[in-house]
C-alpha cells in the first residue's frame, strides 16, 4: 500500500518527471551545487544500506534530534526498513542487496535553507532461503521534495515529502507458516521470465508487447527503459489522483503494447483518457463487462494463495504474464498493476505507476486487509 508521506506544511506542485528541467545553479553557486548533490547521494545511499542492516548510525548524521519534523522524517525511514525486513521474513526470503540512484532535479536556495526536488531509483535484491537460490532484483521509483537546512556547516534534512510504496505497518503482513508456491508450469517458465500464454498467436491481445511496454515505460523505477520516462503521448495523472490505471490501460490497449481495441467508453484522446481508461473502479468494471477480462479470484492474500478443489495450486497460479491485479481497500479499487513475469519460484512480479514499480513482488507494500482482484486478460 502507498500513502502520501507528508512531513512539511507547504504546497507541492506535482509535475511529470519528463517535463521537469535539469537541476542547475549559476556559476557562482557551483560550490553549493556540488556539495548539495554529494549530500543527496550519500543520504540515499545510506538509506539503502539501512534497509539491509538497521544501524542507526547510517541515518543519524543526516537529521536533527531537536527538530520534530526532522525526527519524523528519520522515523519514516526506520519504519519502512522494519516493514521490508518483516516482509522478507514472512515470505521466507533474505534481502541480498540494495542500492539507490538519486538525481537532483532542481533546487532553490533561500537563506540557510534549500528546497530540493529529487527522484530516486531504488534497486532491491532478494534470495529464497534454500541452497543455490539466485538473486532476484526489482526496482522502485520515488519522487521527493526535501527541505534542507545548514547546521554547523553541514546540510541536514529538516522535512521531507514523498509517495512511498513501502510505507506499511509491519504487524499487518499476512503471516503464513509455509509459503505456497505458484504452479509448476509458471516455475519452469519463470526461468526465462515468461509464463504460459506468452508468444501466443492471438490476434487480439499481444502479451509479449504488453509486457515489453510495461517494462519500457515503468518510469523512474530501477530497471525501466526509455531513459526512465513515461510515454510522452499520454497525459500523466500522477498529480491528479494517480497514474496507475492510465498505465495499465496503456499496457493492454496501446498499439505498441497489448493492442486491445478501444471500445465501450474505454478510450484515450489527445486531451486525456476516459473515465474507464483512468479511474480504477470504472476500469475494473469495463474489463469484466466488456469481456476483455475474467476474474480468476477476489480475496485477501491468504485467500488467493491457499489451495482448493477449484484452484489446486492457489488462485494466483492462474495468473499469466500480461494479466492484471487490482488492489481493493475499504470497498474501492485503489491501485492497478500488470503482471510482467515470475521469479524463480513462480512468485508473480508486477509493474505499475504511482508509485513506479519494475518487477516487484505483487504484494510488497500491501497488508492483510487488501483485497486482490486477479484478472485474466483473454487472448
TrEMBL record:
Residues 204-371 form the Putative amidase domain. This is Amidase domain-containing protein. It comes from Paenibacillus alvei.
